[in-house]
Amino acid sequence: MSSRRLRGGADPTGPERSGGVDSETTRLPAKPTLAQPAVPLQAGRIAGNFLAVKGLQKRYDDGFLAVRGVDLAIAQGEFVVLLGPSGCGKTTTLRCIAGLEIASAGSIHLGGKDVTTARPSQRDVGMVFQFYALYPHLSVRENLLFPLKSSGMRRAEREQRLAQVVARLHLESLLDRSPRQLAGGDQQRVSLARAMIRAPQLWLMDEPLGTIDGEAREYLRGVIRSQQLEAGVTTVYVTHDQEEAMTLADRVVVMDQGRIRQIGTPAEIYENPADLFVADFVGSPGMNRIAGVICDGNFHPADTAIRLLPAPAQGLDGPLTCGIRSEYLHLDDTAPWRGTVMLDEYLGAWRNLHLNCQGQRLIMRTPPGQRHAPGTSLGVRLDAVHALWFGSDGLRLQ
Amino acid sequence: MSITLRAISKRFGPIPALAGVNLDVGADELLVILGPTGAGKTTLLRCLAGLETPDSGEIHLDGRDISGLSPADRDMALVFQNFSLYPEWTVRANLAFPLQAPGRRLDAESIHQRIATAARLLALEPYLDRPAHRLSGGQMQRVAIGRAIVRTPRLFLFDEPLTNLDAKLREQLRVELAVIRRNLKIPMIYVTHDQAEALSMGDRIAVLDHGRILQVGTPEDIYQRPASPTVARLVGQPRINLFSALNRSGRWHTEAGLDLGPAPDGATTATIGIRPEHLRLAPGHAGDATEITLIEHLGPHRVITLNWGGQTVQAMVDKQQVFQRGQRTTVQVAHQLCWHNGIA
User: Fold this and answer.
1) Domain A288-390 - what CATH class?
2) What's the pTM value of the predicted model, to 2 decimals?
3) Mind telling me how many Å the CA of B242 is from chain A's nearest CA?
4) What CA–CA distance (Å, rounded) separates A39 from A41?
5) Domain A3-279 class in CATH
6) B236 and A246 in contact by Cβ < 8 A?
7) Which of A288, A296, A307, B5 is the most exposed place for a label (fewest CB within 10 A)?
8) What is the ipTM of this complex?
């Protein structure tokens, strides 16, 4: 895998990575309560271009074109998540915005200023990486104060900022310890605090929760969101985890192979995906796709004569893909289209029922108390109004 | 084939990694060991494989004590989180390797057969002649699983095999693995910290924390009838809401005065657990004390964080129900769990 290209790299503020401590995390305080945002987000604000990326391309020395023309217009105070599989160019895009990579083509404007070739330190951004970048020889307190000292802030204000961030992230008991003595989740909490002690123009985060499990992960996710809402700092956040993207973002930018597939709110990219890639990548599970043909005004699943749905428009003919979310499929004994149960996954609050319908695999969301044995034959009905249609190029039909 | 663990204990210096673990795994069974980081899951697996020697306790395979056997003689197949493949070798050579061990004496034809079967099960047929380093992460992990399958061992030991993969791929492989497993008829012990993996894959789940088994049961048992608040918090996403409650005139109340439903006679204090899907919300009035602080769109459902009479709780609602941040709501409890003094 191309980890050399995509991971790590130096934090412009300097320090080395400390080791991957993997012991128990200290007990977490109660979930953070969410303050109202300092800059309330209204629909109208979204159109702003506080951060404007235009025609961004990045070609590495080995010739690999990691980013192939990315355009972004991000409003002040907005939380934007770059989402995509490994190798999609999301981290490279973020590193170009940070100034850790210099764009091969295109421009980046921040707060109305062209920063395309500016050094990281001239951009006034705070960064958090997947691997905690803390100075191992300094205490947690000194690590937190470092970015303030280097900016020449007065002592009284430094102490005030420290007290605030320590209280918000519950770091009181860690202040005099060395990062080396901390578990992974606590180290990452300190890294976040170090970025959040300042309110720069931009926070940039590259999978900051990637190495953290379970409850610590949820807690820190809540901290990031509540701190961002409170401070109103424009944030760009990179992840491959669609659930993380959906829960954090005002808008999600779905990327694949160096290009943007779609930009939208979590609800938009889930309910109205622009193409089959987004339909599949967003949502757990991804959208079901049914291959078939339009014939005589009806959609027939491939290799069947079943009239599953009316054609989406008049005059259509030939192969088409119907996309439908698992919650819009229902069991119906009278339905002509039948499937065999392959697997019935119990997930606590619901089940994912995996069906093989004449060669096509479907996942249906079913109630937790309704259990079906593998091999059972069941009738499948679709909510016609929620069926989406995709052409052979994978793009949504409008 | 059945496996029995009796009172397995293991310390590393002053730290007890395992403290008297008892477990039975039936023939054909997939037993998931679920626990947070540092619970002792991997140590338990390594004791089974013979890579660690327990300080005390016994391990029986079909009634025979195997404590003295070397890892090779135990005939168990391990799959780790970090796939250990020979990067320059082809997929075929990687799959053949475990079959060419000196003790096995398999002829070329049966080696070929087994590789073909594993490749078909794991959809690796198109890649058999590709060097391992040219595979994607998901393909590499399938080859690592294939190397365990070709051996037809007595027991599979999986140590978080999907953890290093992208979230999306993890979900797909979890399903593939579950379907493949049904056809193999070999018992499997599967270690994970991922609650969805545990619920989805396990015939039974053993919940491990601080080196102790907290509960063993079917996924439905663990989710619907957790033995303790600790177990309850380990399964379910978002997590269960927990409340400390006092019995006031026959009803459970929180300190702040929230009514959490009827309490039995004689009980004084309890921990009450309410799963997010069992909190029912409806639009309220301006004066209501309950306020929505955050709404997360998670596809089929929404997760709503609310301040319910001073306590932050999470509710899971259908996406057809529309709410706004800052909106006042009423809350109804459809179902609750109750532990008196921590025990159900």
Assistant:
1) mainly beta
2) 0.86
3) 11
4) 6
5) alpha beta
6) no
7) A296
8) 0.90
